[in-house]
Amino acid sequence: MKINSLFYEEFKDDILKCTLCPHQCILYPGKTGICRVRQNVKGEMYSLNYGDVTSMALDPMEKKPLFHFHPGEKILSLGTWGCNLKCPFCQNYEIAHMKPEYQKKIYPSAIPSLIDNYGVRGVAYTYSEPIVWYEFVLDSSRQVKYANPDNYNVLVTNGFINEKPLRLMLQYIDAMNIDLKVYNDKNYMKLLKGGLEPVKNTIKIAYEEGIHIEVTTLVVPKVNDNLDELEEEFSWLANISKDIPLHLSRYFPAYKYNESPTDINFLERTYELAKKYLNFVYLGNILSSTYENTYCPDCGTLLIQRKGYDIKIENLNENGECKNCGRKICIV
Ligand code: SF4
């Protein structure tokens, strides 16, 4: 489904500049941008994937991953096609970098009754990149909030977006999981065709706007398995808030990248390093629940026990405080 895009400007005659993400693609008539889902049609910019749903499922919140946002709840997860980065190890490449045959057309006005029918309160825009699904996500998240202010919207995103569209969208967003893929601007650009500073900016702005944020770093051999760089990342995040949950995930070969999966010992060392800076660090894609549990940073009491998607809230009171020492825990 095609609709006019919200963020672009005239570059020259019928040539347009897309201003949605930092690529700022210059598009001649008929051409699409790096994301493949924005096109210059006779001097007007269109979003090509509005309402195209390629994946839809009822997921555990922890799968996003969000560990400190409505733990144990289910969330309706929607994805489309297209992405503005080019990670060679993309874990969702079938929809991010190809156009799947199967697409369901869904209008934003249908989303509130869809979540009601599923008996859930929230929608996650996930699987591929919600930034390049901008107009649909904006309309849908607005409808979800208008239908009931207690409903919530979640973005699972690479964070590579310009500030103006980000701020507009955040009005309707409650939580985000933001990928911070490599703490090195050159490698962000060279290996992933993105950039570090815009992603850091997204994290900072979302935090300042009071959005619940969690950060994910997929630890990929020969891309970001550099402890000095990772330490810089942890220290930078801790300067925003030591309470931002960080997910360090194990990589497995996918798409165009064939390196062996991340070494578990290295992942554990990375975890120990991150714990020197941050209060809530988790390891993902490994078979060990020890690294998935939430402990009180002050007294060490087990607060939330996780075994896969089996969640037990153990020692948190209704005010979100540790029952043992009273420390306030950042859980929404
Ligand atoms: S959203 Fe797409 S078309 Fe627009 S600047 Fe980014 S990659 Fe280019």
TrEMBL record:
Annotated signal peptide: none
Gene Ontology MF terms in the entry: 4 iron, 4 sulfur cluster binding; catalytic activity; metal ion binding
Cofactor: binding details: Binds 1 [4Fe-4S] cluster. The cluster is coordinated with 3 cysteines and an exchangeable S-adenosyl-L-methionine.
UniProt-annotated binding residues for [4Fe-4S] cluster: 83, 87, 90
InterPro entries: Aldolase_TIM, AmmeMemoSam_rS, Organic_radical-activating, Pyrv-formate_lyase-activ_prd, rSAM, rSAM_sf
Domain Radical SAM core residues, every copy: 68-281
Keywords assigned: 4Fe-4S, Iron, Iron-sulfur, Metal-binding, S-adenosyl-L-methionine
SUPFAM superfamilies associated with the record: Radical SAM enzymes (SSF102114)
Record's protein name: Radical SAM domain protein
Provenance organism: Petrotoga mobilis (strain DSM 10674 / SJ95)
